């Protein structure tokens, strides 16, 4: 049965590869292609989940080379990782679409992890913006996709361009995709949001006020220059006539 699992683990990263990995896929049948139940994994179940069978394997062969590299004859451990935050409304809105994606690809495991758990193991400025989808191959990041873009066709194109996999069931969000989600919590007063807006408005007000003051100063300065030019012009004219 295809499922999204919310978990915590460790993995290494390498530079993005341009090759298409041959993934070890789950068997597809009518049962696992018809249900979208979410399974939550405990941390105790995760010890071996991200351990790569080839810890030193790298995607270094030339895709233009027709000679078979030994790694091309082996199947890779592939899955989709959904990184989200339980305090992010974009994460909450995108979760049903990720469930639908997992149901459409029963042959490909799809997991979920909270961004706080991810940052414990790998701090990155890119994680300041969630949700995100990452393709993980042999414990290494192959590519990523903005999870806030809830276009299922775009997600399918993302998987196809990187893994050459097609959905096994129609891409659509069902009522069941909204169920069994992690608990999201949002502050009703949104104090931090209000404070950030207040600081932003005050900053913009200060910038505008400073700009107005400077404009007035420059206007006054140029008026004084114009007055002086007019005065000296008249003064020189009178001297000319008197001479």
Mind telling me the CATH class of the largest domain?
Alpha Beta
Strand order of the largest sheet: 1-3-2-4-5
The helix/strand order is EEHEHEEHH
Radius of gyration: 30 Å
CATH architecture of the largest domain: 3-Layer(aba) Sandwich
Distance between the termini: 107 Å
Counting helices, strands and paired strands, the structural category is: alpha/beta
Query: Mind describing the biggest β-sheet?
Result: 5 strands, mixed
Mean pLDDT across all residues, rounded? 71
Identify low-pLDDT runs: 1-17, 54-69
- How many strand elements? 5
CATH topology call of the largest domain: Glutaredoxin
The share of residues in helices is 25-40%
Number of helices: 4
Give the CATH superfamily of the largest domain: Glutaredoxin
Question: How many domains would you count in the coordinates?
Answer: 2
- Proportion of beta-strand residues: 5-15%
Apparent shape? elongated
Can you give a write-up of this model?
With 243 residues, the protein is α/β, with parallel strands linked by helices. It folds into two domains: 4-178, Glutaredoxin, CATH 3.40.30; 187-243. Helix content is 36%, strand content 12%. It has four helices and five strands. It has helices spanning 89-104, 115-121, 152-163, 191-242; strands at residues 4-6, 78-84, 110-114, 132-137, 140-146. Strands 1-3-2-4-5 form a five-stranded mixed β-sheet. The protein is elongated. The protein starts with a strand and ends with a helix. Mean pLDDT is 71; it is low at 1-17 and 54-69.
């Amino acid at each position: 049965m295809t499922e999204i699992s919310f978990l915590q683990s460790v993995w290494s990263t390498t530079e993005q590869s341009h090759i298409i990995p041959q993934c070890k896929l789950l068997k597809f049948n009518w049962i696992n292609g018809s249900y979208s139940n979410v399974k939550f994994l405990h941390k105790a179940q995760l010890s071996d989940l991200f351990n790569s069978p080839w810890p030193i394997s790298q995607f270094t062969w030339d895709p233009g080379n027709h000679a078979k590299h030994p790694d091309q004859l082996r199947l890779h451990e592939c899955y989709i990782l959904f990184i989200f935050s339980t305090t992010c409304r974009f994460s909450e809105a995108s979760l049903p679409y990720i469930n639908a994606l997992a149901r459409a690809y029963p042959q490909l495991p799809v997991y979920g992890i909270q961004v706080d758990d991810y940052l414990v193991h790998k701090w990155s400025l890119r994680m300041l913006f969630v949700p995100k989808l990452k393709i993980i191959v042999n414990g290494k990041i192959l590519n990523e996709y903005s999870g806030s873009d809830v276009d299922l066709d775009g997600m399918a194109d993302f998987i196809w361009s990187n893994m050459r996999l097609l959905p096994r069931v129609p891409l659509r969000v069902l009522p069941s995709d909204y169920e069994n989600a992690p608990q999201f919590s949002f502050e009703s007063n949104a104090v931090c949001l209000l404070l950030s807006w207040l600081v932003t408005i005050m900053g913009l007000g200060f910038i505008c006020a400073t700009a107005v003051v400077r404009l007035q100063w420059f206007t006054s300065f140029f008026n004084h220059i114009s007055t002086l030019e007019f005065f000296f012009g008249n003064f020189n004219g009178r001297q000319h006539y008197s001479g």
